[in-house]
Design brief:
The chain is an alpha+beta fold and 236 residues long. The protein has one domain: Cyclophilin-like (Cyclophilin). It is built from six helices and ten strands; from the N terminus they run ββαββαββαβββαααβ. Strands 5-6-8-7-9-4-3-10 form an eight-stranded antiparallel β-sheet. It is globular and about 40 Å long.
Length: 236
């Protein structure tokens, strides 16, 4: 199990990872539990090592609406590359947002397909130096200790600067849809963190049976980074 301890003033919350705007008028329907994108490619993580652009956006469509993550590769190049490959090959499609703790984090990154989860268990990447703080809206990989990042990420809902000192390196931030993220079902809190072995081995079928109210990523895609606003022309 992988753990992230926090330096928040409350009890020692832990972030685990296994193996290691208002909602739309018509919310997206949950995909079939076996859904997932490029399964053939996802079964071979050693082949998914493309370098990400210097900046890119990842758009997530969920059962509550859309949110967009803007990734800046310079913040954490290794993490940014891994996230790019996961999104590009649709690893997150059909994944449950399985841990939602209000004021702390939204965590996801265990896929709906057990075979894919198994393939990524040992696909660990090295750590990046921490160059940006875990402030609200930033996204960071979960870890079980040094050099153990695989597929799980979390979005900071609060100011979790205590994670900076523990080596958790944000690689991007949410640029739209934080209101959507704050609507994800949080009634289970940390209860799912003790079931990550079952989630890994049985996929989303396990969550639908035991934690049926969880929200789901229906689709995630890479988009070109939004162009920066043009500088105003100088006036005479």
């Amino acid at each position: 199990m992988r753990r992230i301890t926090t330096a928040l003033g409350i009890c020692a919350l832990a972030l685990f990872s296994a193996g290691a705007v208002q909602a739309q008028n018509q919310p997206a329907k949950k995909p079939a539990a076996g859904a997932g994108g490029s399964k053939a490619a996802l079964l071979h993580p050693e082949t998914l090592k493309a370098q990400a652009p210097a900046e890119y956006d990842a758009k997530f469509t969920t059962t509550k609406g859309d949110f967009v993550v803007h990734v800046t590769r310079a913040w954490a190049p290794i993490g940014a590359d891994r996230f790019y490959n996961l999104v590009k090959h649709h690893f997150f499609d059909g994944a449950s947002l399985f841990r939602v703790v209000s004021g702390f984090v939204v965590q996801f990154g265990l896929g709906p397909d057990p075979a894919v989860n198994k393939a990524w268990e040992s696909a660990k990447i090295k750590d990046d130096p921490v160059k940006s703080s875990n402030k609200p809206g930033t996204i960071t990989f979960a870890t079980a200790g040094p050099n153990t990042r695989t597929t799980q990420v979390f979005i900071n809902l609060g100011d979790n600067a205590g994670l900076d000192r523990q080596g958790f390196a944000p690689f991007g931030e949410v640029t739209s849809g934080m209101d959507v993220i704050k609507q994800f079902y949080s009634g289970y809190g940390d209860a799912t963190t003790n079931h990550q072995g079952e989630i890994t081995e049985q996929g989303r079928n396990y969550l639908e049976k035991n934690f049926p109210n969880l929200d789901v990523v229906t689709k995630a895609v890479i988009e070109p980074a939004a162009a920066a606003p043009a500088a105003p022309k100088a006036t005479q």
